Amino acid sequence: MKLSRRPRRLRRSPAVRELVQEVYLQPSDLIAPLFVRPGDGAPEPIGSMPGVFRLSLPGLVAECRELWALGIRGVALFPVTPAELKNAHASEALNPDCLVLRAVRAVKAAVPELVIFTDIALDPYTTHGHDGLLTADGTDVDNDATVAVLAPMAVLHAQAGADFVAPSDMMDGRVAAIRNALDAAGQTGTGILAYSAKFASAFYGPFRDAVGSAGAAGTRALDKRTYQLNPANRREAIADALLDEQEGADLLMVKPAGPYLDVLAELRAQTRLPLAAYQVSGEYAQLQAAAQAGWLDLRQTRDESLLAIKRAGADLILTYFAKEMAGDLARA
Ligand code: PBG
Description:
Elements: H1 14-20, E1 30-36, E2 44-45, E3 53-55, H2 57-69, E4 74-79, H3 99-110, E5 115-120, H4 143-160, E6 164-167, H5 174-184, E7 191-198, H6 205-211, H7 234-246, E8 251-255, H8 261-270, E9 275-279, H9 281-292, H10 298-312, E10 316-319, H11 322-331
Parallel strand pairs: 1-3, 1-4, 1-10, 4-5, 5-6, 6-7, 7-8, 8-9, 9-10
Antiparallel strand pairs: 2-3
Helix pairs in contact: 2-3, 4-5, 7-8
The structure holds ligand PBG.
């Protein structure tokens, strides 16, 4: 054939392919989400998340040292709260000695340069598992009452040493309220990673098992659709994310990642802020399950899924594969 363009010339050899590769993953792209549990026992496996553990404080500190040595620069901490500390008011969220704050202080003392992200939402602390306080009739999450708890909660996290607080609750106006509260408390250096486009996703299932926030036993699956985004809505997601930027967020996030790459790519085009994407528990679990069944190659699908998230526009990727991925990158 007489062809003026033969695109395959750019794919002829490994060296040519490397020369023209557009994006690469590196350990500093990755943030490791870590589950913290009370006590000082051994790491506790999570059934639906093979390779992920609930860590006690000593285990958490050891893990953070290893992650730092592998080139991981950020961790996102999620506490597993014992049922007896949960109530309708989420009062444990404002306990200055609660588990996640002790975890922040321990990690900061041991690996001071590691960037700590903490989750700002009430679901670890409410009996019902919602991200906020309920209205008096119990039929919905009360936006403004919830924000009134989130703002002082963020200040406690900043004072404990969190580098970024990460509101994952999807209440309206929480970014501005948190920014104002942080500044009023003199915590001007603490950043906000806003879970800006967080969808009401069924892919969070394994996470809710991991932290025990699925709601009381025997109750219906939690419905968070009055605050998390409708998976059908891209325009609404972009509008909500841009509002977080206006309110003072330093970093914006899209979550889940893989099923929402179109949202990520469009947000990349609409903002100059760095973007994060969260490859959530269900995205991790589906690759692990298929690999266990012998149906997919774990390493290749992991690499491809993460590269796709980066290509779509993520600067930072929260992923349960962070440690394995960084280890493999270091050995490559
Ligand atoms: C709660 C929160 C959730 C996740 C992170 N923070 C669950 C939810 O909204 O119900 C999910 C993360 C994952 O699935 O890996 N604020």
